[in-house]
Amino acid sequence: MKNYVQWIIKGLAMGAADVVPGVSGGTLAFILGIYSRLLAAISAVNITAVKLLLSGRITQLWRHIDGTFLLCLVTGILLSIFSLANVIGYLLEYRPVPLWAFFNGLILASLPVLLRSVSWSAPRLMLCGAGVVFAVGIGMLAPVQLNPAPYMFFLAGAVAICAMILPGISGAFILLILGMYGPVMLAVTELQLGTIILFASGCLVGLLSFSKLLNWLLQHRHDATLALLIGVVIGALYRIWPWQYEQQMLSPWQYQQQLGSHDLLLAVGSLVAGMMMITLLMNLERLFNPAAAVKAKE
Description:
This protein has 298 residues and is mostly helical. It has 17 helices and two strands.
C-alpha cells in the first residue's frame, strides 16, 4: 500500500511538470528514480503482451506490463493535470518568474544525486556535454506557423511523445516548434475525432518504439545513457530560466526594465521551495519504509 501511495505522489509531480510548456514529466521521472522502471513497463507492451491478452491471461498480462505501477503513476498524472492546470495556467500568465524559479529548484537540488549515479570518465563527460548542447539548441528554436496536412498530426504525435518521455525536453514545446501546438489544441477543443485519432496513433507508435530504444540503452549502456540524459536535464535549465523575454535570457534588473517587476524575492522563495519539494520526493522511500531504506543503504 505504501508503494502505491509513493507512485501516485510521483505521478502527481510528473503531471504538474507536463502542464508547463518547457518542463517534461520525463525529467521528474528521471529525478525521482522511476525512469528505468517506467521505460521497462512501457516497453513490455509487445508481442508477448498481445498474446497474453488474446489468450485471456489477464493476470499474467497485468504483471508483465507492471500494471499496478503504471496505473498508480497515470492516476497521479491525471489528478495533477486536472487539479493544477488552472493554477499553473494563471501563474504562467501573471507570475511566471516564481513558477520557473520553482522548477529550477527542482532540477538544481536533484543534480548532485544524479551526478553521483554515474561512474564518470572522459567519454561520459563528453556525452553529458552533448546532452547540454542538444537541450539548449532545442530551447533556442523558434516556433513556426503552418497549415498541417493530416499525416503531420501523426508525425507530430510521434515526435512530441518521444520528447515527453525524454528528460529535459517538453512535448508541448516541441509541438510549438513544429507549429502543431495550435492545430492539435484546436482539434481537441472542437472534438475533431479523425485528427485526434491520427495524433493519438502517432503518440502510441512513438511511445512504444522510443521507449524500447531508451530501455535497451539503459540496460546495455547504463552509465553512458545516464550521462547523456543528465546533460539534457542540465541543458533544460536554459529553457526555464526565470527571467526570459521573447526567448532571451535577462538579468532580474533587465527583466524589470522590460516588464516592470522582477519578483526577485518570490523567485528566491520559490527556488528554495522547489529544492525542498524535490528533496522530500526523492526521500519518499525513507519516509514510507525506513527499515527498507536503511537495509538498501547497507
